[in-house]
Amino acid sequence: MKEILIIGNGISGMMCAIRCAELGMKVKLIAPGPSEQSQSVMAAGGINAVTERHEEGDSVQCHIEDTLKGGAYLAGSNAVKGLCSDAKEIIHYLERIGTVFSVDEQDRPLLRAFGGQTYKRTHYCGSSTGKHIVSALVMEVRRFEAAGLITRIMRHHFYSALISDGRCYGALLYDEDARELVPVYADALVMATGGQNCLFGKTTGSSRCDGYAVGRLFMQGAALKNLEFIQFHPTTLETPQKRMLISEAVRGEGGRLFYMDGDQKVFFMEDKYGPRGNLMTRDLISREIVATGRDVLLDISFMDKRLIDSRLPEVRDICAKYRGIDISKEPIPVAPSVHYFMGGLAVHKDHETNIQGLYAVGECASIYHGANRLGGNSLLSAMYSGKVAAESISGKDHKLEPADFENYILAEQEGFKKMLDAKSPFAAMHIRDMLADTMREHMSIVRCADSLSKGIEDVRYYLSVAERIHYDASVSAYTNYSLSGILTLALAALTCADARRESRGAHYRSDYPTASDEYRAATIISYNDGNMQVTFDRENAYED
Ligand SMILES: Cc1cc2nc3c(=O)[nH]c(=O)nc-3n(C[C@H](O)[C@H](O)[C@H](O)COP(=O)(O)OP(=O)(O)OC[C@H]3O[C@@H](n4cnc5c(N)ncnc54)[C@H](O)[C@@H]3O)c2cc1C
After folding, report:
1. pLDDT in tens, 289-341
2. What is the CA radius of gyration of the chain?
3. Considering only CA atoms, which residue is closest to atom 53 of ligand 1?
4. Architecture of domain 406-516 in CATH?
5. Of 131, 208, 289, 307, which sees the most CB atoms within 10 A?
6. pTM over 0.90
C-alpha cells in the first residue's frame, strides 16, 4: 500500500488526502493546527462552476476563456481546461458530502457575479463558503480516519524534504511538543501549505501560510514559477491585526466604489469603465484606487437590509465588529491589500514538481491562475488540484529505491539542537517586520527597476543578518528556523519581478507600462548553490 505524506490540512490538503484514501492509499496529514484554523475557512465569496443550472449563455468554454484571459494568458491552458470541465462534478461532490449552497425559493442555486467573469457562476454558502466546505471535508477525512486510511497529525511543521538524486522520499518535520526534528518517509510528499503571507506581514490571509515551505524547497532544488504575480484585493478594511477582506460579493451584489470630491460622490470605476466598472479584475481596480490618491469608500447601504442579512452576513459582522460600521446605513472605507499568490511551486499538469515524488496542490502550487486569479477560482483549484495529485500518485509507480538519509538527518538534528541552545542579540520577529516593510514598499501594486533593486539590496542584507542569528528565545523555534527560507523566497520574488520588464496581470511596472509579447511566458526561477537563475518558460515545459 502506498504511503503518502501531505503537509497542510486546508481544502487542497484534505481533498488530496480523501482522494488518496478513496484510491486505497495510506495518508499522514500534517499541520500545526486543525483544518478549522486553515486559511481556507476564511474564503467568503464562493466557488466557480458552470453546472446544468447555469445562466443562459454560459458554458464551460466561457469559464475557460475567462480564466485564461483573467490570467493574461500565462496559465496552463490544458490545466485550465481540466479545472473548468471538472468544476460541475466538484460542486456535486461537495453537495453530496454535505455542503449546503445558498438557493432561491425554488431550490435553485443562487449564483453570484464575480470580477472578470462574463456570467454569474459563483456558487456560495452565504458569505462563509470556505467554512462550509472545510466542515464537509473534515467529516470525510474523519470517515477515512476511522477506516485507518488517514492519520491526522497536528503540532508538526515542515522542516525540509528528504531529497536524493532528484527524487523525494519524505520530509523532516519539526515536532512542537518534543522540540525535535523527526523524519517521515513516504512514497510521495504533497505540499499543500497555502500562500506566502509572511512576505508582506499584514495581509487578508493567515499568518500560518508564511511561504517558508516553498522557500525551503526552492533552496533544495524545486523550481518556482510566476512569483512576481501577487494579487492585491481592492477592497480590504484596516484593523489592528490584519486587513479584513470585504468580499467581492459586495460588488457582485451591486456595491459601488466612490470617493468624495467636495460634497460630490465620484463613482470613478463606473465613470471610466461603464456599469460593470465595479466588477473589473482585481489588479485593475487596485491600480485605479491607488491612482485616485483619495480615500475610497464602498457603498452597499442601498440594498434591502434583509438581503444584506441573508447574503452578506459575514461582511456585515466584520464591519460592525472591527470598525463599528453599519453597512446598511453607511459606506465602508476600503483600500487594496495583498490577498493571493499566483506564484509558487512550479508543477506539471499532474501536480508533480521538477523533483520526482514531490507534489504541490492548492495555493502553494502555480498553474491555473497565470498573471491574475479570478475570484472564486481558488477554492475550485484547491479542490481540483488535490484530486488530480492523488490520481496521479495512484497511477504512477513510485516504488522507493533505497536512499540513505542517515547522515543528512543527524546533521540537521544536531544543527537544530545547536540553534535551540544558542543565544543571539538579533530578533527574528524584527527581521520579519523589516522584510514586510521592504516588500510593501518595493514590491507593491506599482513597481519599477529602482525600487526593485532597493528591495533586493534590503533582503540580501536581512539574509546576511539572519545567517548570524543563532536563536531568538523570545519567539518560537519555528519562527527562528523559518526565517532564512522566507527571506530567500522574498529575494526570489523580487528577482522575478525585476526580470519581467513589462506589465501584465497583477505585475505592473511604471517603467514598462504595457504588455510585451517577448514576456508572454511563465517565469521559472531555480536555485543553485546560493545563486538564483530566472528563465521564461516559452516552450510551456511546465504546462503539460
Ligand atoms: C479572506 C479570504 C477570502 C477568500 N475568499 C475566497 C473565495 O471566496 N473564493 C475563492 O476561490 N478563494 C478565496 N480565497 C482564497 C482561498 O481561500 C485560498 O486560496 C485557499 O483556501 C487555499 O487553500 P489551500 O488548501 O491551498 O491552503 P490553506 O487553506 O491556506 O491551508 C494551508 C495549510 O498549510 C499549513 N501550513 C503552512 N505552512 C506550513 C508548514 N511550514 N508546516 C506545516 N503546515 C503548514 C497551514 O497551517 C494550513 O493547514 C480567500 C482568501 C482569503 C484570505
Report:
1. 999 999 999 999 999 999 999 889 989 999 999 999 999 999 999 999 999 99
2. 22
3. 205
4. Up-down Bundle (1.20)
5. 289
6. yes
